[in-house]
Amino acid sequence: MSETIARLRIALSDSDPEIWRTVDVPLGANLRMLHDIVQAAMGWQDHHLWEFEVAGRRYGRPDPHWRDGNLFAASNIRLKALVDRGVGQFGYTYDMGDDWHHDIAIERVEPGQPGTEYPRYVGGARRCPPEDVGGIPGFENFLDAIANADHPEHQDMTDWHFAGYRTAFDPDLVDELAARRRIGTIVKRRAAGKAAYAKQQSG
To answer: Domain named Plasmid pRiA4b Orf3-like: which ranges (predicted)?
Structure first.
């Protein structure tokens, strides 16, 4: 029997042209796993704080040494609970300094395809910004600088990006193979967790 999945569209807010990804996610996934899926699909490196905003509540990874009574554990709520509540759209913010806000829309809920493992990368457009580039304004300046050899920051920005990524930056390129590979790691981790749980139950 196939599991039920949600088709999610993840768009980087205020990006123009829009940077977006589409993924299929099992309803049993909690928001902690969805964080990993967003990171993998977009191409972020998971170096910074993050949180989801759902119907006026914030979900993330509470710090035991820094109490925040308004931040709930993302691991304690599943995507199914959002669907059951009728939530159709919610937010995700990565890196509170650069403030990368994402709009996540639940496009549809349907049975998964037999024999297909989830989560699954479906598609997307345009490359994710580099980490620590300075949010949308910094990213726009970065794009201007690397595209224009006469820009006063052209060499600095080009060198800075290459030092961190070892590749030139092509804003139109989505490395779908890498996205699928990263999400494949989540699939394997999920399968291992389910196998360990089944073994525990049978023992």
So the answer is: 5-175
